[in-house]
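Researcher: Structure for this, please.
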Amino acid sequence: MNVPIRTTANGTEYWDREAKKVLFVPAGMRPSFEVTESPTTMLHKGETVKPLINTPVFSLEGMTATQLREYGEENNIDVPGNLKKVDAIREYIEEHLAADEE
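Model: Predicted structure, token format:
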């Protein structure tokens, strides 16, 4: 039985109960194994079934400069044209996102 445990921008991780290891499936691909969303066999007596995956975790890591610029446009963040390196663009966007949360 394989249970989804975490979803990120890069893909989804599943816990393989038989092999006792984590399996990773890249974003946009389907797992080549059977997935159990809400395994009742993993519950204690009296416990109700609840989703194992919370809100997906979003990460700017792994995005290209073009993807970061597009993300900035979608979120009304004007990324200066003189920023060329991926790390600099990511840092600029993260700063603006953090400022918006305050």
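Researcher: Any notable elements?
Model: Helices lie at 65-74, 86-101. The chain has a mean pLDDT of 80.
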